[in-house]
Give the backbone structure.
Amino acid sequence: MADNTHADVKTLSFERAIEELESIVKRLEDGKVPLEESVAIYERGESLKRRCEELLRQAEARVDKITTDANGNAVGTEPLDVQ
């Protein structure tokens, strides 16, 4: 895993965020992290989870905006307005 521990969660790609989240889960499951550090990485994990959910919602909205013709063939996309 690349060292993302200080990267701003809001700027991470889905792949980088999920990779770091998986690393945090593994460390917590191993049970070898001191309590204070466990709390800190758990909090970061929560932020990473929210980032992944946000990016998935955006991707889902983009897929929902694909327009089709009468035969069901994709003919284009509509502008995405994700908030």
